[in-house]
Amino acid sequence: MTTQPGYNAVAPQVDLPAMEHEVLAFWRDHGTFERTLAQTDGSPRWTFYEGPPTANGMPGTHHIEARSFKDIFPRFKT
Question: Taking a C-beta distance cutoff of 8 angstroms, is the pair 54, 63 a contact?
Answer without folding.
Answer: yes
